[in-house]
Amino acid sequence: MKVTVNICKNKLNLFWKRNRCSIDEVAEIAAYDTYDTDSDVLKAVMSLHDKYRIVVYMYYYEGYSTPEISKLIEKSEATVRSLLHRARNKLKELLKEEYDFE
Length: 102
What we know:
Elements: H1 2-18, H2 23-33, H3 40-46, H4 50-61, H5 66-73, H6 77-95
Helix pairs in contact: 4-6, 5-6
């Protein structure tokens, strides 16, 4: 029985590892669906480092909460909030000339 359970788990893991795509591909698909592709904000988000881009995209564009994101990327909620905070600061620096944040 245990061998059968382990084989089933291996098959499930294999499926999920083979059927992944990068965040860039997902962003391109989503951008064409509902978002303005010429948006400076979206371009700035996509120019961020992966660890910031993923949490910002999931939080603002996909609508996930920080607990949900923490489960999906397997990091603590505090880490997700910290990454969001740092990403917002980086975006603020990138977009400070175009938008007035005061």
